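Q: Now give one record:
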Amino acid sequence: MIGQSEDWYSTNSLAKRVRFKTTSHFPIYPQRPGEKDCAHYMLTRTCKFGDTCKFDHPVWVPEGGIPDWKE
């Protein structure tokens, strides 16, 4: 089994499943429907507060943010 993973030959069917990695290099920010949009996130698609930010971070914001966004 040189260069082969032991999982491939295992009788455990879960060990043989392909493990997908996320292709996005963006962090996931909290979704808070009903709250105001995070102004910095809307402009840059980044937020220094991360999970602790109290504002909404919509998933539809394009890569790089919306440069001329105003609430």
